[in-house]
TrEMBL record:
It holds the Pfam family Methyltransf_11. This is SAM-dependent methyltransferase. Residues 78-175 form the Methyltransferase type domain. It comes from Nocardiopsis mwathae. The keyword Methyltransferase applies. Keywords: Methyltransferase, Transferase.
Length: 283
């Protein structure tokens, strides 16, 4: 990984392949530059110690995809792509014994520190790549991620397998990504964003490059089937696929997510899967 993380203006947008290292480096570059604005714009909606699964505002305190309160109490939890650690802080409030957040962006983690100090609820964080978790096998009871990491990886099977690796038998993985159907539509919150334009089956990444051809933002598209197959291949059992509906009382627009579009097409997919108590032999 290069340490030159300075961003310059976007010279070109491409649809092309991007590998694991290039994608992680682009995420680092992007989020070092975007973290301040992201937290200023969305921090209020996210809450300092709250767990929402995406722009619809689906609240973990209500849906309990990670487990009932008594299951979270005493649990060891890893949050992947934790940003400023809002979800991790909520988990601490639930009585989880250990909560660790990882994120590829140092600036996002500095925001975690800022909120730790403001709230008096610190969360342990480390700078790391979702594709190479710096933890032992079976170290966690729960692995979770709200739009953190998974939308930015080229290989769904490898990323899900890596999270499954650090989950103990009987543990649970829950993560949210942009709903794959969004890939067909322009990222536009108005009516223009309701006209299907691109193929759902085109897996080439969306890549923004600077003048030197360096990727500075990469987002990957994977179909629902890609995610389901990757969950099965990792030896996990898919328990639920939640497609949150846009609530009447949510009037906020978040980039291409808006009440107008949200009432017509899904914006978020949340996958909830369990690692069986005894691992099934993999075919
Ligand atoms: C949309 S933000 C979501 C952050 C947080 N979960 C939230 O809800 O605000 C995406 C986060 O994923 C992180 N990220 C992107 N690629 C990553 C990777 N390969 N490994 C770890 N984190 C990554 C970014 O740095 C960023 O903080």
């Amino acid at each position: 990984m290069t340490d030159d993380l300075t961003t310059s203006s976007i010279a070109r947008v491409a649809r092309r392949a991007a590998g694991a290292d290039e994608s992680a480096r682009a995420s680092r570059i992007w989020w070092e530059g975007a973290a301040d604005e992201y937290q200023a714009e969305h921090g209020g909606f996210l809450g300092d110690a709250a767990f929402v699964w995406g722009p619809e505002g689906l609240d973990e305190a209500r849906v309990r995809l990670l487990g009932e309160p008594d299951e979270l109490r005493g649990a060891r939890v890893l949050e992947v792509g934790c940003g400023a650690g809002q979800c991790a802080r909520w988990l601490r409030g639930q009585g989880a014994a250990e909560v660790v957040g990882i994120d590829v962006s140092y600036r996002q983690l500095q925001h975690a520190r800022r909120i730790d100090e403001q709230t008096g609820t610190p969360v342990a964080v480390a700078q790391a790549d979702a594709q190479r978790l710096p933890f032992a096998d079976a170290a966690f009871d729960v692995v979770c991620s709200s739009y953190g990491g998974f939308p930015f990886v080229p290989d769904t099977a490898a990323a899900v397998a890596e999270s499954a690796r650090v989950l103990r038998p009987g543990g649970r993985l829950v993560f949210s990504v942009s709903h794959p159907i969004r890939w067909c539509f322009p990222d536009d919150p108005t009516e223009a964003g309701l006209v299907a334009r691109d193929s759902y089956f085109d897996r080439r990444a969306y890549v923004e490059e600077d003048g030197a051809g360096r990727a500075v933002y990469v987002e990957h598209h994977h179909t629902l089937g890609d995610w389901v197959r990757s969950i099965a291949a990792a030896g996990l059992v898919l328990r639920d696929l939640v497609e949150p509906e846009w609530p009447e009382d949510n009037e906020q627009t978040w980039d291409g997510w808006s009440p107008l579009r949200g009432r017509i097409i899904p914006g978020t997919a949340v996958f909830a899967a369990d690692r069986p108590e005894a691992d099934e032999p993999r075919g």
